[in-house]
Design goal:
Number of strands: 7
Low-confidence stretches: none
Strand order of the largest sheet: 3-2-1-4-5-7-6
CATH class: Alpha Beta
CATH topology: Rossmann fold
Strand content: 15-25%
Largest sheet: 7 strands, mixed
Shape: globular
Number of domains: 1
Structural class: alpha/beta
């Protein structure tokens, strides 16, 4: 389900300078100035082709959204969808560099949607819910900041629950079959739509900094 690299992508993404922030490190501590308002900022790590964050931005004009995606070919697709949305920006960086892009208490909420589970033990530090990343999130989230996580991988989900518990995050909600048990509207990612079609279980957790 990986997207093929877009031909001449380096040139093509330049036309989206309005929505893609190409040097986000220069905006560190100034994101409210970038959006020209004081609305809370929500961050999605692993934006993919943008369906989730674009729909959230359209439905929530009083919240600013930033999508983080490491693949320039993928973020190009997200930029096409979201190019005219005023409360949306995209950054083309690895999540490990977020500390260089945001100051303390600059982000109100983080979304982790279908993150790479990195199943091998030697790759644990790359998991987006490893202790390393949870500490990073604490450094950029507001007091009582929120993380929402969705995954189709049971082992990654269980690992994440354990890590949140170890670091004493408050558990607000846990759902072991999101689309079966929740009847209200759920904004989905591209992966999630495909998983729904084949009846795959989606795990969900919502936590808050204690």
């Amino acid at each position: 389900m990986r997207l093929r690299k877009v031909k001449n992508i380096e040139e093509k993404i330049k036309q989206f300078a309005g929505i893609i922030v190409f040097e986000p490190q220069l905006i560190k501590g100034k994101w409210k100035e970038e959006f020209t308002n004081n609305n809370p900022i929500y961050l999605e790590i692993g934006t993919g082709k943008g369906n989730f964050i674009v729909q959230h931005a359209l439905k929530n004009p009083d919240i600013n959204f930033i999508g983080c995606e490491v693949s320039n070919s993928v973020i190009y697709k997200a930029a096409i969808k979201g190019q005219k949305i005023a409360n949306l920006r995209l950054i083309n960086i690895d999540a490990s560099l977020l500390k260089d892009v945001f100051v303390g208490e600059e982000i109100a909420q983080i979304y982790l949607n279908f993150s790479d589970p990195w199943p091998k033990a030697r790759h644990e530090k790359r998991r987006l819910t490893s202790s390393i990343f949870l500490e990073l999130y604490k450094n950029i989230l507001v007091k009582q900041g929120i993380i929402e996580l969705k995954s189709d991988n049971q082992h990654f989900f269980e690992y994440s629950v354990l890590k949140f518990n170890e670091q004493k995050w408050d558990f607000l909600e846990i759902n072991l079959d999101l689309h079966k048990e929740v009847t209200t509207e759920i904004i989905t990612t591209e992966y999630e739509e495909k998983f729904k079609e084949i009846g795959k279980t989606i795990y969900y957790i919502k936590v808050r900094i204690n």
